[in-house]
Amino acid sequence: QVQPVESGGGLVQAGGSLRLSCAASGSIFSIGTMGWYRQAPGKEREAVATITSGGSTSYADFVKGRFTISRDNAKNTVYLQMNSLKPEDTAVYYCKRVTSSTWGQGTQVTVSS
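The structure corresponding to this sequence follows.
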């Protein structure tokens, strides 16, 4: 199964920002709810944020006020703007359709200090 491709991760200092991109396959007319997830070393994978085809968003408590999820249906792309990053945000970040049971490789986000 073809997976969305995550990009934009990197190494940043605490308090910095990153913008992740998720390039999904499919028609602009058929993209459903998309989500960002993350998994830190030794920890469970957890949901970060979701966005519906209509633009309704939902966030985990630990990122509210810091992260913003958005999408451009014409480009089949979902974004995660991450501000005020904390060391505990260090994880591999994944995107997928909420209804999908498969995962891609993700993109590594490392926040120092």
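The chain has a mean pLDDT of 92.
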